[in-house]
Request: fold
Amino acid sequence: MASTIKPHAAGRQAGVGLAISLMAGVALAWVVVMLVVLRLSALAPEASGKVFAVFPPGTSERQAFGAIVAAGGAPLRTVLGGWGWIAHDDAAGFVGRLRAAGALAAFRGAPGGLSLAGCFAFIADEPRLDPFARALEARFVTDGARASRR
Reply:
């Protein structure tokens, strides 16, 4: 018994190595494609309006909240465990100010609201049904009515 590995077992081990290599290659290609897609779908620095701002993982909710306020925006709610936020500001350059304050990128235009989009999110300039837009609009209408009563 010169060898303890049987011929068919050696072939099986080679096949497992090939399968693992292919799986790792596909995973790496997927990561690269997703990084390119995310970079291309990020909003330009001069953009404004309601956005989904992404902060580096490990950013506390307090730090992200402070960054949005420092950028002149209104934090609406947290997403993705605190390092993603829905924020709003109508002044031009809001996204650029968010990036300067520490955000990685900002996105918009997911169907059904940004929190429900998941893998089906896409970027579009056309308005979508969004309950948060109505809530934000109602807040500004209410604030305007209070200001006119004073």
